[in-house]
Design brief:
- The longest helix has 18 residues.
- Strands 1-2-4-3 form a four-stranded antiparallel sheet, with helices on both faces.
- It has one domain: 3-Layer(aba) Sandwich (NADH Oxidase), CATH 3.40.109.
- It is built from eight helices and four strands; from the N terminus they run H-H-H-E-H-H-E-H-E-H-E-H.
- The chain is 36% helix and 14% strand.
- The relative contact order is 0.21.
- The protein starts with a helix and ends in a 22-residue tail after the last helix.
- By secondary structure, it is α+β, with helices and mostly antiparallel strands.
- The radius of gyration is 18 Å and the shape is globular.
């Protein structure tokens, strides 16, 4: 799919009703990756964007375990569920989002650490879209294996594995994934908010 066709598909699937930043609509989660390496400059740019996400008391509890060397990629890929490996094995970068559950200053529990880490992932994903990269977060992986193979402490949160790279033609995917390789829609705006009291 060429860029004009993709832009039309995004417009059709994601109508902008309130004039938001176009980058938000451009960001989506393809599964078809080129094996082309991601430059150091671009990778650091994604992490820099995540660095500036908001967090409770500016704690910045998120951390990223980056796999791009062949031996690290093999370890990270071994942690993925088989249905994700069918496409994510081609991604030149895999990174795991983890977070500390304890405030650094006074050692109190930080119950917002996962929420704040999600904001950091969102910033990273938007910066990837701005740079013409793909960033696809996955829930299908073994937390236990991530902890074992990358020595993550038991009390730290292990939230997601993100495939990062350049988009490839959908035709390289298995047929069932080709059918899903398009920008997704969203719930209607009126379905996600209520004023005053719970009414969902």
């Amino acid at each position: 799919m060429g860029e004009p066709e993709l832009e039309k598909e995004i417009r059709d699937a994601r109508p902008d009703e309130h004039g938001i930043n176009p980058l938000i609509l451009k960001r989506w989660s393809p599964r078809s990756f080129q094996t082309k390496p991601v430059s150091e400059e671009d990778l650091l740019g994604l992490l820099e964007a995540a660095r500036w996400a908001p967090s409770c008391f500016n704690e910045q509890p998120w951390r990223f375990l980056v796999a791009r060397k062949p031996e690290d990629l093999l370890r990270m890929r071994s942690c993925l569920a088989e249905h994700n490996r069918t496409w994510a094995d081609r991604a030149p970068v895999l990174l795991t989002v983890i977070s500390s559950p304890i405030f650094a200053l006074d050692k109190r529990p930080n119950r917002w650490n996962a929420f704040d880490s999600g904001a950091a992932w969102g910033y990273l994903a938007l910066e990837a879209a701005r740079r013409g990269l793909v960033a696809h977060a996955m829930g299908g992986f073994s937390q236990k294996k991530i902890r074992e193979l990358f020595r993550v402490p038991e009390d730290w949160g292990v939230h997601t594995v993100v495939a990062v790279g350049y988009r490839a033609p959908r035709e390289q995917l298995p047929q069932e994934l080709q059918e899903r390789e398009h920008p997704s829609t969203r719930r209607a705006l009126q379905d996600i908010w209520r004023e005053g009291t719970f009414g969902f």
